[in-house]
Amino acid sequence: MKSRTIITVFRSSDPSRPMRARYLVWGAVLLSVRLFAVTSDIIVVGDVMPAWVQAAPPTPAAPLYYLPLIGGTKESAPEVPGHVQSLRIEVMQALAGALAQRGYFLTNETHPPNLLLVLRWGTMKPELADFSSGDPDEPPNVAFFNGREMRSLVGMYKSNEFQLMENSRLNDASRENRFYLYVMAFDFTATRQHGKKLLWSTKMSMPTEGTTLPEALTALIAAGGSHLGCDTKPPLIIGANGSRNEHVNLGELQVHEYLPPSEKK
């Protein structure tokens, strides 16, 4: 089931309504009006640069302000007149709510931007070609032409901390058609004066099967919004039931004493 709420006004002329409150409300509305079952794992990959690690993180009480810039989008479906613009509005409003909860607010007349926020979303598909001989005694020979891009999308470059099961899940995910949302934060002043200075990035993705791009973007923001601007070590895998990848490290097992049943009191 799909429902759509489109709000075409980004700013209110009513000065009595704080801008940060408006965006929190808009984001909550967008995330709540479209309800559907998420049946696939969502992967969230966050990276931070050294300059960002040393800075004090923003909070709603001490926020940073951003100027949004929508970069290239990749969609497998043909464009429908009006669809691209309405989708951009929905994504911006939903994302604004998630960002506001972490202390990021849209720039305005009284608050110049600290950050340039670049957004990209769309579809990525693995490009595979099987050159195997068909001989069961020989290993498979499969060319993965865009393997670097797909593995980066799901954070396999951070998988050295993973256990075998999660590593396998990431490898499988890199070979699926995936919807993605990519958010990059640049230092506004440094980028304007000297060139791009990346501070942090967050990649969120999920399989395309069983859902549409608008639905997937809503799910990605709901699942990954609380991790914007954070470093995920290792990549975060959020299951369909809301479960997350967690590890239990067992210490060395020791046998202190064994008593046969006949000797037990």
Summary?
Residues 1-37 and 246-251 have low confidence and may be disordered.
Helices and strands in order:
Layout: H1 19-33, E1 42-48, H2 50-54, E2 64-70, H3 83-101, E3 104-106, E4 115-124, E5 128-130, E6 142-144, H4 147-153, H5 164-173, E7 178-187, H6 188-194, E8 198-207, H7 213-224, E9 236-238
If you had to describe this structure to a student in words, what would you say it looks like?
With 265 residues, the chain is α+β, with helices and mostly antiparallel strands. It has one domain (37-242): Double Stranded RNA Binding Domain (2-Layer Sandwich), CATH 3.30.160. The protein has seven helices and nine strands. It has helices at 19-33, 50-54, 83-101, 147-153, 164-173, 188-194, 213-224, and strands at 42-48, 64-70, 104-106, 115-124, 128-130, 142-144, 178-187, 198-207, 236-238. The strands form two sheets. A seven-stranded mixed beta sheet has the order 3-2-4-7-8-1-9. β2, α3 (83-101) and β3 form a beta-alpha-beta unit. The radius of gyration is 23 Å and the shape is globular. Mean pLDDT is 79; it is low at 1-37 and 246-251.
* Rg, Cα atoms, Å: 23 Å
Which second-level CATH architecture applies? 2-Layer Sandwich
According to CATH, the fold-level topology is Double Stranded RNA Binding Domain
- Class by SSE composition: alpha+beta
- Tell me the count of domains: 1
Shape: globular
Instruction: Give the helix tally.
Output: 7
- The CATH class designation is Alpha Beta
- How far apart lie the N and C ends? 64 Å
Q: Average pLDDT, to the nearest integer?
A: 79
Strand sequence of the main sheet, in spatial order? 3-2-4-7-8-1-9
Oligomer: single chain
Count of distinct strands: 9
Largest sheet: 7 strands, mixed
Q: Low-confidence runs (pLDDT<50, min 5 residues)?
A: 1-37, 246-251
Strand percentage: 15-25%
SSE order: HEHEHEEEEHHEHEHE
Proportion of residues in helical segments: 25-40%
